[in-house]
Amino acid sequence: MHLHKYEKIWLIFGVGSLLLFLTIIGFGAFYKGLQPQSHMMTIDPENVEAYDAFKQENLGVTKVNDQKYIVNVVATAFNFDLGKNEDGTPLKEIRIPKGATVLFQVTTKDVVHGFSIAGTNVNMMVEPGYISSYETKLDKYGEFTLLCNEYCGLGHHLMSTKVEVY
Amino acid sequence: MINEKLQLTKKDTRLSMAFIYVAFISLLIGGLMGLLQTFVRSGALTLPWGINYYQILTVHGVILGLVLTTYFIIGFQYALMKKTVGITIKERKIAWIGFWIMLVGTIMTAVTILLGKASVLYTFYAPLKAHPAFYIGLALVIIGSWVACFVNFHQLFRWKKDNKGEKSPLLAFMVVINMLLWLIATLGVAATVIIQFIPWSLGYAETINVLVSRTLFWYFGHPLVYFWLLPAYMAWYAIIPKVIGGKIFSDSLARLSFVLFLMFSIPVGFHHQLTEPGIDPTWKFIQVVLTFMVIIPSLLTAFSMFATFEITGRRKGFTGLFGWFKHLPWKDVRFFAPMIGMLAFIPAGTGGIINASHQLNAVVHNTIWVTGHFHLTVATTVILTFFGVSYWLVPVLTGRKLTKKINNLGLIQTVVWAVGMSFMSGSMHIAGLLGAPRRSAYSTYGGTEQASDWIGYQIGQAIGGSILFIGILLMIYIFINLAFFAPKGNEEFPLAEEEKDAEPTPKFLENWKLWIGLTVVLILFAYTIPFIDIIVHSPAGSPPFDWPIGNQ
Q1: What is the mean pLDDT of residues B122-127?
Q2: Of B414, B415, B387, which is closest to residue B482 (Cα–Cα)?
Q3: CATH number listed for the domain at residues B7-498+511-549
Q4: What ipTM does the predicted assembly reach?
Q5: Which residues of B are less than 8 Å from A152 in CB distance?
Q6: One of B131, B373, B400, B429 is an active-site residue; which one?
Q7: Topology (CATH level 3) of domain A48-165
Q8: Would the CB atoms of B128 and A7 count as touching at under 8 Å?
Q9: What span, in angstroms and rounded, lies between the C-alpha atoms of B463 and B467?
Q10: Picking from A162-166, B320-324, B350-354, which range would have the lowest pLDDT averaged per residue?
């Protein structure tokens, strides 16, 4: 098959940049360990309390030490359950100090949801039967929006919570 | 050259027009829904009569993404096949059966959505449960489209039998590749709809495996976009050269790029599932690499297009570095509309590379950036090329002429579209980078500052959406004119030819067993192990949930 000389140059340049690009992505994924959220742990969606992290008393923010926090969330249409405070009212906000390592662990009791903190790299699909988990550092002060970004029903756009990094 | 058998008869034109009527009716309905969505999201409109945002979003996605595209493509492809390899009476009869099956399915699905029983969006993710009629209707649309696949396969097969040893006509080859792609891809969505959704929604199966259904959906969902794109490429490779008075740049390269699209558009669905639990990230990465292979035929196509433009321009005597570019027939809408579509593919393709980039996907996944992206690909590149085709195809099919007046109106339509889309898609891209979600009704998200920053861009989308709707009304006017009122006459069916001294096309490019075999091998390689993994490690299935979508 005949290839024009310019076309050869164009293809060598194009395919060459493509290979370089894929090498960089692969280097990030396998050497630096920067993989997209792919947690493999399963759970019974009708009995998420059987899993320690999703027991009512363990929901919301848990401080492990000054530098390490865990946030456990159960998503249902159309709410993120962050547990309750001492007098029994549902918590509506997540507060995390800047620079601490945070492990988010999320599951759903009903349909598919999204778990996205706008303006950060926290962005996971949450599917019935699975735990979604992502560890990160929030290194900007301010108020962020945690919202469901996968359609879960007629109240989907009302499913949100504030996240404050202080 | 003129072959009696390949002239379009009344019976052929009726078949293609049947599909194209449905496509343009869909454009009007689906476009109106899109306009309403942008108004709702700007915070300026509350829908009357208890109509829900997600209901009109479902109509918009299903009717434009699945109905408009599929019908236009099948109608266009029947015309191409007739002009290149002909159609027999029996083939045409079977083609009509396919049309009616698709139409029954379309109406069933549309009625279910309009009754508010299927506000599940066009991706219908389990375990949200729509009324069974929604899934049965979708299955009929797919099955009806398979009839078109087999008719097209038979047309080429019959031609090859009658013309032993001859190279198949380029456009017929391209149509068959596209229908092969469609057939192989729709096996996935048909499997999930027929085996999983229908029994589950009817109550025969208690639970559904959610991750399996999503994986089967996206096995289909990505090649779907190439099924939209390849007919546009057919027009670019084999129609546009004739419109601008040139020849096909290279028959072999055109075929090679189509073969590469067939092989690399299917084993790549995981790049839509990058942030999902339960799928091994190594397999996600492998499919990301396969995804990027389609960049190669895209580069081939870009080169071929501009080579054709330059060669044609220089042959006409336009010299200088860009003389040939300046003298392209910018005032011929049959060229101008697809050309704007091609130019839109530069940012559109770049956005696609960002979306599929393994890690970077987390920044944009399910944000309105993605919506901005596919409004550049399918709703600009593809649809402007389809409009560009309609300007000559509709008059050819109705025995009329494209008048100077309608040509000029078409130029205006194209500009209106480009301006409207720049506003809408541009705002979507920026808002998405700021984290604004797609597929969401108007919300202030508890009054966060971030959410208030998004409102301005949502107003930008409404402005763009309004301009685009004017574009749709113009196009509908043009279509009605070309179909019913334009003066009678003989419009040219622009089929480009090869150069007289073109290099012969290598035989291996028509080795169907080889290409289908490689495609199957790649699919098996990319999916077998992760799919077994998903099934072996699957959690308890999900019962149906109908209350979240108000379908009790």
Answers
A1: 93
A2: B387
A3: 1.20.210.10
A4: 0.95
A5: 128, 548
A6: B373
A7: Immunoglobulin-like (2.60.40)
A8: no
A9: 6
A10: B320-324
